[in-house]
Amino acid sequence: MRFITQYYFLILFVLLVALTAAVGGNVYQYTENQKLEADKAALIEENDSISTTLASTTMALLTATTTIASLEEVVADLEGDKDNLKDELRDEKNKNDGFEDQIKDIAGTVGVLDKLSKTDKELLQKYSKVYFLNEHYVPESLKEIDNEWKYDESRTFFLHSKVLPYFEKMVKAAKKDGVDLWVISAYRSFDMQAQLKGDYTTTFGSGANTFSADQGYSEHQLGTTIDFTTSGINGGLTGFENTAAYDWLVKNAYKYGFTLSYPEENGYYIFEPWHWRFVGTDLANDLRKDDAHFYDWEQRKIDEYLISIFD
Q1: How far are the Cα atoms of 11, 35, 269 from residue 21, in angstroms, in the given order?
Q2: 286 CB burial (10 A radius; 0-12, 13-18, 19+)
Q3: Is 263 left (phi over 0), alpha (psi -120 to 50) or beta?
């Protein structure tokens, strides 16, 4: 009986253990299932969150793409505006350059006109039997020639004040080369020319017209013309063309703005190798280059040099 009771206790214990194990296993399985469900729920929630984030990101990306596209259009428009502004700026610059050139031209023209207005227009006119200087004409300024350059120091000779520096450079250069250039006639007024022509006419009759101008037609009245003599001809004019002085003048006078008015076979007077007129270095140089003399050129061509006569 005791054995049977122990046997039942043993069976009961085994059953209890088995039941405990079963219950424990079910509890464990239940716990694991709950954990899995929780993990699943967490994953689902995380997935939903990711999906939501992804959707937001996608929307933001689409928005950003749209914004970039809009910005690119704006940039393109700005580039177009920039190019247009460049073109407009270039056009305005060209206009301004054009205006500046016009202003310079106008200023230059005004300057030229102002300079011309202050320059005696008579200085380059052809007077020998062509143009006439009235009895009231006197050069704007006259200065006396220094005694060193006169053949007769007892006489007084005047020259246009703006011509005098060119004259002095010329005679000093000639002297340096061993050539004497002395003045025997310079400025002559209208009345002085009338008296001189009268004296010549009394002595030579109508023949005086071949070498002496009437009053108002003499280049000497301008104060820019000089008659020279030199050593070896006793202060006279005859034979001047055969002197070293004449040869020197032919080769060098143009450098100082002087030109021979009446060369051989001119249409006005006899050959006057002693008679030299100041016309400015530009005109004198160009006449020499053209192998021409003052009265060979048309007056309108000569007039173009008036602006630079004293430059």
Answers
A1: 15, 20, 159
A2: middle
A3: beta
Q: Which of 189, 184, 181, 248 is nearest to 220 (CA)?
A: 189
Distance (Å, whole) CA 269 – CA 247: 21
30: burial class by Cβ within 10 Å (0-12, 13-18, 19+)? Answer: exposed
- CA dist., res. 37 & res. 33, Å (int): 6
Its pTM stands at 0.66
Sign of torsion over alpha carbons 242, 248, 253, 256: negative
The radius of gyration of the chain's CA atoms, rounded to the nearest angstrom, is: 58
Average pLDDT, the chain: 83
How far apart are alpha carbons 296 and 95 in whole angstroms?
45
- Map tokens 């729920």 to a residue: 41
Helix boundaries (H) for 205-310: 244-252, 281-289, 299-303
Q: Are 304 and 270 in contact (CB under 8 A)?
A: no
Asked if residues 300 and 124 have their Cβ atoms less than 8 Å apart, the reply is: no
pLDDT at 208: 79
DSSP classification of residue 252:
H
> Pick the residue with more confidence: 58 or 232?
232
> What secondary structure letter does DSSP report for 183?
E
Run of H or E residues at 44: helix 2-117
In whole angstroms, give the CA distance from residue 8 to residue 185.
177
225, burial (CB in 10 Å: exposed 0-12, middle 13-18, buried 19+)? buried
Which tens digits make up the pLDDT trace of 202-252?
898 888 778 788 899 999 999 999 999 999 999 999 999 999 999 999 999
Q: How many CB atoms lie within 10 A of CB 152?
A: 13
The two three-digit tokens of residue 43, written as one number: 């994953």
CA distance 224 to 220: 7
